[in-house]
Design brief:
Elements: E1 7-17, E2 33-40, E3 54-57, E4 76-77
Parallel strand pairs: 1-2, 2-3, 3-4
Length: 78
């Protein structure tokens, strides 16, 4: 089922610790929108789909995106 996900928005009312599996986005090849807010994530995903158009991740837990990410279709990054 995750292959068909095109958008994901996680916006918690108050900051909370959230565990995101390293492989969480690997099967989401169609993901176009990813927005995460008020989620305290301790480690980065190993993979972000190249189809992403909009990436908004407040508190992203690293200074860089995964090496495999090719942001050729990215139009918004926050």
């Amino acid at each position: 089922m995750t292959e068909n996900v095109v958008g994901m928005w996680l916006d918690l009312s108050t900051p909370k610790d959230v565990l995101i599996n390293n492989e969480a986005f690997e099967k989401m090849k169609q993901l176009r929108l990813l927005k995460i807010n008020n989620a305290c994530v301790s480690r980065c995903p190993n993979y972000i789909p190249n189809e992403i158009r909009w990436l908004n991740w407040h508190g992203y837990p690293s200074k860089s995106l995964p090496e495999s990410f090719q942001p050729e279709k990215l139009v918004g990054l926050k």
